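We emphasize that the prediction below concerns an isolated chain of 124 residues; any contacts that depend on oligomerization or on bound cofactors are therefore not represented. The input was used exactly as deposited, without trimming of termini.
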Amino acid sequence: LRAFEQTPSQLEPFQQMEQVLSFVLRHHGERIDVPDLAKIAHLSVSQFDRRFKQLFQMTPQQYILRVRLNAACQALTSTRDSLARIAQETGFYDQSYFTKQFRKHIGISPLAYRKQSTGEREAP
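Result of the prediction step, given as a token string:
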């Protein structure tokens, strides 16, 4: 029972960030600035950065990138959209930057990911 009573106070820091996480999920295809996220959380930029890192073991920028890469993975496997269109719609500035970040964090190119995930074979 005692552990249960302590739970609300342990969840409070995460609840304070809920609006920030939701904002990033809804707006990942747009430009997102950390000072804007700090305002949503009602914190200074430095307080926001520190608290975010403490809670999620990553920077806000890393979280934004992760959300964008996840959205890109979803688009690669569920649409036939071009890589350029997926890059634009998931918040990357251009296809080249998208491909570089995708390969760096996912380990393969977006096209290879699409082919691997959809079972698509290379043309002869």
